Amino acid sequence: MEQDKQRLCIDVARLYYKSDYSQQQIATQLGISRPTVSRLLQYAKEQGYVKIQIADPIDDMSDLEEHLIEKYGLQEVRIAYSPLNASEEIKKQLGVKGAEYLNDITKDGDIIGISWGTTMYKVACQLKTKPLKGAQIVQLKGGVTHSKSNTYADEIVERFANAFSTIARYLPLPVIFESKEIKEMVDQDRHMNRIMELGKQANIAMFTVGSVKDDALLFRLGYISPADKIKIQRTGIGDICSRFFDAKGTICNQELDDRTVGIKLEELRKKERSILVAGGERKIEGIKAALAGKYANVLITDQYTGRALL
């Protein structure tokens, strides 16, 4: 009797999984009820006669995430699956994944510090409405520029604030001043100092990493002199919040750093969540250096970049 049941459930499983018969068609062919077909299919799975394997790229991404967490000592890694290894497509997918992650982790009372740039703009555009009580959005670096190149600085802050139904704290200053003395005078302004202190207090910081290639956004904005650019490119690998660092994550031009308005990189190490959103071939070395400096404890990247980082 048991052997007959085994034979019947295997026949049912073959018709269902191999021959694509519906449960009703199987019931008609074998002269049994449809609920009996359903129970036999369940029995076949329970007995191990049927083993279902799903080739899901998310499973592969989970493995990649775990390897990156282990190698770089991170709290979390989220991989954005990109169908193309192309900069614009990767940014688009990073925007979706970055917005999803923020939606998952944010809560009432959070202070969220954000930088600017094209990657952060993609995140801002993908944010879903999630009203938070007592939350604040604060700009982590100066966003004023007279260049024709768009930093999206104000729009990013505005979109974040709207998404979380809270207030935005802008830092209406150039990101780099002409001299250390002028920058120090601005630091004494009570209003500006309060915003920068709020950036330090932020429990969540989200930012990207810039490159030191000739066409990097920060170079195109006109803040950096040709002489400074040469110095930066000699030892620099990338920047976070317009603070340039070498392959070990160490500030590579202290004089320029002293003229920079915004959060200091060591402050990022103290955050509950310090989230680096970056991907693409041109960002790989900068991401490595940022992780070497321990400036991020959460990484959001794409699968191509993730594999390169390993």
UniProtKB/TrEMBL annotation:
Keyword terms of this UniProt record: DNA-binding, Transcription, Transcription regulation
Pfam families referenced in this protein's UniProt entry, alphabetically: MarR_2 (PF12802), Sugar-bind (PF04198)
Regions annotated as coiled coil: none
GO molecular function: carbohydrate binding; DNA binding
Transmembrane residue ranges: none
All copies of domain HTH marR-type, residue ranges: 22-52
SUPFAM superfamilies assigned to the protein according to its UniProt record, in alphabetical order: NagB/RpiA/CoA transferase-like, Sigma3 and sigma4 domains of RNA polymerase sigma factors
Taxonomy, superkingdom: Bacteria
Keyword Zinc-finger: no
Domain called Sugar-binding: residue spans: 57-310
GO biological process, one term: regulation of DNA-templated transcription
Family of this protein: Belongs to the SorC transcriptional regulatory family.
Record protein name field: Deoxyribonucleoside regulator
Higher taxonomy: Bacteria, Bacillati, Bacillota, Negativicutes, Selenomonadales
